[in-house]
Amino acid sequence: MTTPRHGSETGERTPWLPPRWFVVLAWKVHRALFRLTGGRRGLWRARPERWGALRLTTTGRRSGQERSVIVGYLEDGPNLVTLAMNGWGEAEPAWWLNLQAQPRCEVQLADGPRHVVAHAATGEERSRLWDRWRTLDKDLDGLARRRPTETAVVVLEPAPASREP
After folding, report:
1. Mean pLDDT calculated for residue range 33-53
2. What would you report as the CA-atom Rg of the chain, rounded to the nearest whole angstrom?
3. CATH no. for residue 91?
4. pTM across the whole model
5. Contacts of residue 105, Cβ cutoff 8 Å, sequence gap at least 6
6. Is residue 14 part of a domain?
7. Averaged pLDDT of the chain
8. What is the number of domains present in the chain?
9. Which structural domain range is residue 47 located in?
């Protein structure tokens, strides 16, 4: 399912976004803050009334090298939930493309690391989780309309314990 790109097509208001250069600069500053403080700043726990920030480390689908990004998340029981968006830009984020190729990854939360396995929520699960995000971001539907394709809701489930001899 695709969503309309512009709110004018549906008669709804399209939320304002800062210019792309500003979004990219904000990401760079956030990552620099995380690095310069040795990870002590830049991540925070999700709460019922606000999303948190985690560092997601994937395996590059082409390079095979580790790639890290900081994304917003919410908790859903033992699972972590994020949205596969690239600052609401049109392209799919590289981290989501990497997870589709290799779903096992690691997340760094404010209280420590966790190994997880990613999947895209579908059907009722997607609807339920989208509604949870909507309670935290009143402009969510309008922002999603800016993208030419549906924004994936990504579920990060705890990875099963490895069975090494």
Report:
1. 84
2. 16
3. 2.30.110.10
4. 0.80
5. 56, 57, 58, 59, 98, 99, 115, 116, 117, 118, 156
6. no
7. 84
8. 1
9. 41-158
